[in-house]
Specification:
two-stranded antiparallel ribbon; 1 helix; 5 strands; 9% helix; 65 residues; mainly beta; 3-stranded antiparallel β-sheet; elongated
């Protein structure tokens, strides 16, 4: 885990998990990457991208003195 300094305090940087699903709108076929559908000469208008972002839970309640 990376640490950055923010206002003089060390703050951990949490990484998000990003998952992209590439699907053909007409056929419903799922492709692993852009190169796969481009190699099949499928028009870009027929492609749908779904992006899912998962972030770790955040500590929203600060500690009081």
């Amino acid at each position: 885990m990376d640490i950055v300094k923010l206002n003089g305090k060390d703050v951990p940087v949490k990484q998000a998990i990003v998952k992209t699903t590439i699907t053909n709108k007409k056929t419903g076929a799922i492709y692993k990457n852009d190169g796969e559908w481009k190699a099949l000469n499928i028009p870009a208008e027929d492609i749908k991208r779904d992006v899912s972002i998962q972030i770790p839970s955040l500590d929203l309640f600060g500690k009081t003195k």
